[in-house]
Design a protein that fits this description.
The protein is an alpha/beta fold and 130 residues long. The protein has helices at 11-21, 33-39, 54-57, 63-73, 89-94, 108-124; strands at 2-7, 25-30, 45-49, 79-84, 100-103. The protein is globular and about 35 Å long.
Length: 130
């Protein structure tokens, strides 16, 4: 079973994601960015909210900066997915370090399907290192 980490400052969103995905993935949610960063390497995929509260992530201004940090700091990062309540086309084009950018408004069904597709593609790729 694939392991999915979720970093989001909304407990309601974390609970909804965990409920929607827990039958096909092992899901762990985080509200604290430092704790997330310390554990994320053990996951197959990590979802990061774009708009995190400043007090939760210290030196990072948003979730995309967390993704950029992970991409640079980890030799073999998990798949990194940016999730936002306001992911317009400009944002989606600008997040080149993320493996995907999803809108929360698309719903949990779309989220579930997209994560399954990303993980399937990762399994098919000849090298999981980036």
């Amino acid at each position: 079973m694939h392991k999915v980490a979720v970093l989001d400052d909304s407990r309601a969103w974390c609970s909804a994601v965990e409920l929607a995905l827990s039958d096909i993935f092992s899901v762990k949610t985080f509200e604290d960015t430092c704790e997330f960063i310390n554990q994320v390497e053990s996951f197959d995929l990590a979802m990061v909210d774009y708009a995190l509260f400043a007090s939760r992530f210290h030196r990072f201004h948003d979730g995309y900066q967390v993704i950029c940090h992970l991409r640079q700091a980890l030799a073999n990062p998990p798949l990194l997915v940016l999730v936002s309540a306001f992911a317009d086309d400009d944002l989606k084009r600008s997040v080149t370090q993320a493996d995907a950018c999803l809108e929360k408004a698309d719903g949990l069904g779309v989220l579930r399907q997209t994560l399954q597709t990303l993980l399937s593609q990762k399994l098919l790729s000849p090298s999981t290192k980036r």
